[in-house]
Amino acid sequence: MSGAQIIVETLxxxxxxxxxxxxxxxxxxxxxxxxxxxxxxxxxxxxxxxxASHAADGYAxxxxxxxxxxxxxxxxxxxxxxxxxxxxxxxTPLVAITGNVPLPLIGRDSFQEVDIAGITMPxxxxxxxxxxxxxxxQTIREAFQIAKSGRPGPVLIDVPKDVxxxxxxxxxxxxxxxxxxxxxxxxxxxxxxxxxxxxxxxFIYSGGGIVSAEASKELLAFADRLxxxxxxxxxxxxxxxxxxxxxxxMTGMHGRYAASKAxxxxxxxxxxxxxxxxxxxxxxxxxxxxxxxxxxxxxxAEISKNIPAQQxxxxxxxxxxxxxxxxLPKQKHDAWKANIEEMREFEKENxxxxxxxxxxxxxxxxxRILGDDILVATDVGQHQMWAAQxxxxxxxxxxxxxxxxxxMGFGMGAAIGSCxxxxxxRTVLFTGDGSFHMNLNEMSTAVANQLPLVVMVMNNGVLGMxxxxxxxxxxxxxxxxxxxxxxxxxxxxxxxGAKGIRVTSPDEVDAALQExxxxxGPVLIDxxxxxxxxxxxxxxxxxxxxxxxLK
Amino acid sequence: xxxxxxxxxxxxQNRSGVLTRVSGLFSRRGxxxxxxxxxxxxxxxxxxxxxxxxxxxxxxDQIVKQLGKxxxxxxxxLMEPDNTVTRELMxxxxxxxxxxxxxxxxxxxxxxxxxxDFTPKSIGVEITGEASxxxxxIEYVRPYGILEMCRxxxxxxxxxxxxxxxx
Lengths: 551, 167
Description:
The complex is a heterodimer of chains A (551) and B (167). Chain A is an alpha/beta fold and 551 residues long.
């Protein structure tokens, strides 16, 4: 078999049915094999390699499977960089395959040559340059294993063109398994259970680890046992159903008041599958001063990296939660719960008020009209926070958003990848006019694939999140955030071959969503909102719950 | 927390790029490397790195954990100072034109170093030992004029039974 054929066969052997990518000179051989194997593996061509990398990421986030992206050498490979970094920061399992110039040309600044392995070293779990076709199959298998083992993440394999042409035998083999997890000892679990039992005001802070470990059910059972409220990081949002009685919502910079307040008042924080990002903690020195921390995670390096933990449990959080709950007598914390009820009341009385067409209305209308059985993707900025704050999530893996890297332009590719990964399930993308402008080229991909994608552009004509900071912290000096672009998103959608609808009132939002619901292909809804809308509450960077701005 | 120097021994797969990966980890996480040496081990599939770094307990803990996440890193050991032999080699060329040739040679003997190059204008010295000994020698000859010098960085092995191997 040729190296290119080995690549395609090994991908198929790993259960890959869809790959995203963009052809080019140094991957022609791989694309030739994809052509021949097109009855067994489906390739989606995007408008730009960045879109392909986000699509593979969305595919992985929405299914838990390893996403695969292919790009040619040079600019093809470097265009993947933002996508790979996005996947790295949010621990998404991804395998990126890049072509490179033939071995004798490497290191000579050949046409379309970049050292993509060097470039991606700090943003991959691991990466490879395969210089011998004899190692190709094993390398790809290893890459899949690394991508999905432990804390998942992206792996890149760079394959020079002559290695794709060279011939070697292919050994039939099944899907590689993730490496087994280490587990905490019984003694550690007992100690943790004692810490929990001693707590009067426990608080569960859960993150994206619950999503990737598929441990939602176990988390809720644990929370019931503990009689503790749950607040999540943004990455952890979809893992807790919005109507779960103890769910307080997202914590942190733009978290709900009750969630952040309860976290600040707790005497014990059980942090599960989360890494205490600075966006979640604010001022680290003042963070949760009254609380002991029990940190449960798959990655030992996260323990005490950002916030020191009194106790920690390392391993698969699903199993840990089950074992820990079993060791714990049923807890009861009525006083604490009454206290939290007061926080919730206060939160209700201090809801933010919107100036024009309310982003809250737009977000909730999407759910009310399109139903629970949809996927929600976002770009990055105010619209992302509104989606995180107001969308009533019911299922894990239904919220596709760039948390750690905060990648504007993530949304289109990610929505496309998620939609395709879920048998073209209806997918709504909340985006802003700033973010959408970054990668709107992928509208062409959505149209070409006739995806039921509803793109809701929260169009305020400004870079709203940056503007909000300029309003609050930079004396209203709106440097380069008033966009004043003349793009007509409705006409733009039509030019791409999609439907475009502009809305300025709640009634129009409803009507447009009704129309989107019965449309086969993509629909863009241009939601005109006020430039001065803010995302609130807000705890200023480096602040604490005492500094929270509510309205 | 106090900053202190510490020595790590790391067994890595002997592949191209592994040195970049390890040193890149230090720079991007903001850890300081004082010295790093690397060479083959008794098993040619693996190399052994000796890293001397400075930091407090937090940095030390993070370095060990973050290194542990690298796929090519097989084993890491934080060397206990009392149970470790550490050595460093230095080549140093001292100016001999100031009429202090005898004093320099006396230092070479007292430090149990070796003169490996001898010209009318300079003396080249080879010296091995713990880093502190090398530092002391440098300070002693500094007034005479150091023309150039080159240190290998620290290498370390645990004493007696304490062995670090890939398996």
